[in-house]
Design goal:
The chain has 738 residues and is of the alpha+beta class. Strands 3-7-1-14-11-12-13 form a seven-stranded mixed β-sheet, with helices on both faces. It has a six-stranded mixed β-sheet with strand order 9-17-16-15-10-28. A five-stranded mixed β-sheet has the order 27-24-23-18-29, sandwiched between helices. A hairpin with a 5-residue loop joins strand 11 and strand 12. Helix 8 runs parallel beside helix 9. It is globular, with a radius of gyration of 26 Å.
Amino acid sequence: MTETQVGTALSGVGVSARRPDATLKVTGEFAYASDLWLDGMVWGVTLRSPHPSAWIRSIDVGPALRTAGVLAVLTHEDVPGEKFYGLDHKDQPVLAIDQVRYQGEPVALVAADHPETARRAAAAIVVDYEVRPAITDPRQAREVVRRQPVRVGDTFEAEVVVTGEYEVGMQDQAFLGPESGLAVPAEDGGVDLYIATQWLHVDRDQLAPCLGLPPEKVRLTLSGVGGAFGAREDLSMQAHACMLALRLNRPVKIVYGREESFFGHVHRHPARMRYEHGATRDGKLVYVKADILLDGGAYCSSSPAVVGNAASLGVGPYVVPNVRVEATGVYTNNPPCGAMRGFGAVQACYAYESQMDRLAEACGLSPVEIRVRNAVSQGDRLITGQLIDSPAPLAAMLRDLEAMPLPAPAEKDLRALPGGVSQTTHGESVLRGVGYGVGIKNICFSEGFDDFSTARVRAELMAGEPHVTVHTAAAEVGQGLVTIQAQIARSELGVEHVTVATADTAVGSAGSSSASRQSYVTGGAVKAACEAVRERFKGLPAREALERFGPIEETREFRHRPTYPMDPVTGQGDSHTQLALCVHRAVVDVDVELGLVKVVELAAVQDVGHIMNPQALEGQIHGGSAQGLGLALMEEIQIRDGRVLNPSFTDYLIPTILDMPPMQLKILENPDPAAPYGLRGAGEPPTLSSTPAIAAAVRAATGLRLTRVPIRPEDIALFDTGTTRGATDGNRARSGRG
């Protein structure tokens, strides 16, 4: 029996293997980080700044200390080690020292025997602030995080030229499980932290210096993660819980409420972008100029990588011989921004795809045709000069998408119209539009980052049966990684009984559960460790080998091919590991009187290289598309003068099951020869292309330019509903019974 046949028979690679956590999550029995409990534990609470920018004149903790049940109150003076941390640059204080730079910045900590007691005590702390003007407009920012140009060619004249200015609002990851964790002091003077995170080892490496401890005395174990999407890459309550636990020599639990969660993690960078596209009369691109401004907020976080992605992918998956791109990230007094699904590439994708639609209109071509004529393919180069050395069948993907059947006209059932059961319309003011979007996303970390993962695999007999244990530090954040690791072990070793151990820092780093990288990098490490174990089987079946040799354990690291930093002047360089493509078609119904939009259907074509788990893959495409829909139509953290106006799920709107439409999917398998199993990371690409496709469909229905997402009702309803808005007959049709 071949390895592939073994894998299929044993729920290995390529099969929709059942998730080991599925039943517990469906029944509500799964233990998330907020469910952690230990006898004798106390509760920690964070006092946060109400101001986006202010000097701290003094902090009086006396009233909090006098509150019955309070055990400790800590400020920056109590930080036992280094006072600053950060993912890319150590610029963020553990607790504010002499100033605050954004609303919600942590100022003091309280531990008490009850969470309500801790909250009341925190509110009693008296902080004397000297409020100062806040810099909230990124165009007025004085400090730059990173500026990355891309320069190619010298021809910037063309027969057809279209320009546009575009804006993307601040999106929140909106995970359902709030930040939470439990810190437990250890007998050796260290601390054990049970935490919902995306990156155990980098958490540890930031924490240890701040706690004044060697890394080996800061041990992290992954607890149940209720979603992440990039927001858990940065520290939140980790250092605070550990400080309190070490001070009190007692376990300390911190759990954020929903409002505090909005202040306690990074968000998607808002963007302002100006683009100019030049082309021949038949639609072939001659040049692109782009100026991309990203608001990084108060601290650095992962802004440098976001800027790099926006610059290198700033014109999309199109052949462009002449390029002038300038991507810049700046500091402001807005909330810190960092990683969110598709970071950097999402913002640019909305702008360049909007431009491609304008170019199609100017050249008299369809939205699909303009993209096909300029689509990259294997053998072409990115604007950074990097060769696309694996399949990239973008033109064929677009033709496949165009050929998919369109949904039927709107039903007479009012629930199928914008506004739904609210009966805001009977169809008389509803117009239908169709739009397309294309996105290209880098997979794994880029620009020379030492991106690797470690896996330990142990095979042994248990109750007479071969059993395999896979141990990595890779964070399962809901994407199904534990399932994939077990599938790989079954395929490689031909053993049905596989356990994936809880992720922790007792094994080597697996890097972050971000950048769509874990199936590639940790999957590669598990595969390599399994191959090493199989070699020690000496060609014998697993049971016979283990009976003869006893338990077999191997540890392996896996690194993808090297990447290199972008040139700081020209932007040239092989900066990315792998590239993934997804294309979307959106069909929307728009009530042009009330500005309400219903997404009727999304269709998508994505090349994933090799399908590891069909059901999990479809879930990733659906989920990424849902977040793109949210950015297109409803999701935005509203900021006024640096203050968050809507830190709740009452006022920050995310798509529900009633907002997500049916989806048609076509999944292609064109293997990447450099990747394990030929796979391509699949989680992020759908988030890119769904947003511009939906925006394009709304434009097609209304004829409005709509240069900002999310599109708000007032962006549509404040305008005349006549037919002089520039929509083409091919993309616009009246819907419903009107």
